[in-house]
Design brief:
Aldehyde Dehydrogenase, Chain A, domain 1, single chain, Aldehyde Dehydrogenase, Chain A, domain 2, alpha/beta
Length: 469
């Protein structure tokens, strides 16, 4: 009974703001280039004004090292907003499209118009960036927006609310706080948003899509999965290990595109393990718990899940834990079972299983046990092997001889495929996914081919066949 009261109260609180946003949107004020650009400038300046608050909140919620938080959560946003501002006027222009000869004289174009009011549901692992990045896209496209920060990172959620409330009127941007399971269902049940942008787990993404379908609300789902990392026998092992260690253990492995497991060729396995150990020590020291450059697990529940994985293989490196501090050392496991939870579930933590393979076909078969990963990484200098994996593995995005950096390129679409998500964003793709491409054909009021008009006859059919062979 309590849940019903809570659901009703959420809907009651949201309703007047939702109506304000719809009314403001239909006023047409959000559509101009001048207005959109000004909102992006406001957002960027607000982030600049609150850098210290953001960094402090991220340290409180996740123990994020200052430099790591600054680069991955703040400078990322500066780059994204700058890219949107630089290209916005060009993207807003109607796009001329060819028109078939049979319809001449006429012209065709695509007009990118705002969707309306969008709901942005952000996760806890990059709680600031993954709330603000889709918001920047929504504003660039001329929408109004509701932002639901993750309750699992409460300090950052408060900072997000403070920044957005101080920067924008609620008829343009509003923040909804609270436990996701109690706030999101009533919003999706009672209001038809023009789009839902969700970043999070596959399981929750399915629920969001089902709820949104009740009101035919389209969704962009940025999910996850088990992103494989292949280390070919031709790889530069030292460089590969260094880049993999950085990509895996940044944000303590709590990154949706982190290498989830390593497929290492049997001929180089031992040498590769030695390189991995070397770079873990170089980055985090002999006692990683004392390192100022390693964050912490988000909460005790996640800590216990991750700790349970440690018994599912032989610990080669790391394995130390501290429950009170929510600390898990950068860990490498060997001899894991492909049927075990650690190879069935997305790890999302500082634990890296190694799986040995002998042939490329064998490696692909292992990857296909968990199809459609969000990311895929190949390390090697064998072009034939590189092409084999790229051609035979379906993935959202990835890198060759590097990892996770593809998501920082605003000219590349970021998103999943299949189980790892639908829709993509960043740069132009943020503008596109937050816009409706409206098709328009304009005909001239002058002579035209009479072919399409009745009465029809055999001569017209012959002419049509000439056109449409």
């Amino acid at each position: 009974m309590e849940a019903v009261v809570q659901l009703n109260s959420v809907a009651k609180n949201v309703a007047p703001v939702f109506e304000k946003q719809r009314k403001f949107f239909f006023s047409g004020e959000t559509k101009s280039y001048k207005f959109r650009l000004s909102q992006l400038k406001k957002l960027k300046q607000a982030i600049k004004n609150n850098e210290e608050k953001i960094l402090k909140a991220l340290a409180t919620d996740l123990g994020k090292p200052r430099f790591e938080a600054f680069v991955t959560e703040i400078t990322f946003m500066y780059e994204e907003i700058n890219h949107l501002m630089h290209n916005l006027e060009k993207w807003m222009q109607p796009k001329p499209i060819g028109t078939p000869l049979v319809f001449q004289p006429a012209s065709s174009k695509i007009i990118y118009e705002p969707l309306g009011t969008v709901l942005i549901i952000s996760p806890w692992n990059y709680p600031f960036q993954l709330a603000m990045s889709p918001l920047a896209g929504a504003l660039a496209a001329g929408n109004t927006a509701f932002v639901k920060p993750s309750e699992k990172t409460p300090a950052t959620a408060i900072v997000i609310e403070d920044i957005l409330n101080e920067t924008f009127p609620e008829e343009l941007v509003a923040v909804v706080q609270g436990e996701g399971v109690k706030t999101i269902p009533p919003m999706l049940d009672n209001f038809r948003f023009n789009s839902v942008f969700f970043t999070g787990s596959v399981a929750v993404g399915k629920i969001i899509a089902q709820q949104a379908a009740k009101n035919l609300t389209p969704c962009v789902l940025e999910l996850g999965g088990k992103s494989p990392c292949v280390v070919d026998k031709s790889a530069n092992l030292d460089v590969s290990a260094k880049r993999i260690v950085w990509a895996k253990f940044i944000n303590v492995g709590q990154t949706c595109v982190a290498p989830d497991y390593i497929l290492v060729h049997k001929d180089v396995k031992e040498k590769f393990i030695a390189k991995i150990k070397k770079h873990i020590i170089e980055m985090f020291g002999e006692d990683a718990e004392k390192s100022p450059d390693l964050g912490r697990i988000v909460n005790s529940q996640r800590f216990e899940i991750l700790k349970s994985y440690l018994a599912q293989g032989d610990i080669l490196i790391g394995g130390q834990t501290n429950k009170e501090d929510k600390f898990i050392a950068p860990t490498v496991l060997d001899n894991v079972s492909l049927e075990g939870p650690i190879m069935q579930e997305e790890i999302f933590g500082p634990i890296l299983p190694l799986v040995t393979y002998s042939s490329n076909d064998e490696a692909v078969e292992i990857i296909r046990r968990n199809p459609y990963p969000l990311a895929f990484y190949f390390f090697g200098n064998n072009k034939k092997a590189e092409n084999f994996f790229i051609d035979n593995v379906s993935f959202g995005g990835g890198c060759v001889n590097n990892a996770i950096i593809h998501l920082a390129n605003p000219d590349l679409p970021f998103g999943g495929v299949g189980y790892s998500g639908q829709g993509r964003y960043h740069g132009w793709y943020s503008f596109e996914c937050m816009s409706h491409p409206k098709s328009v054909v304009k005909s001239a009021n002058m002579g035209e081919l009479p072919l399409r008009y009745a009465p029809y006859n055999s001569t017209k059919e012959k002419i049509a066949r000439l056109y449409f062979r």
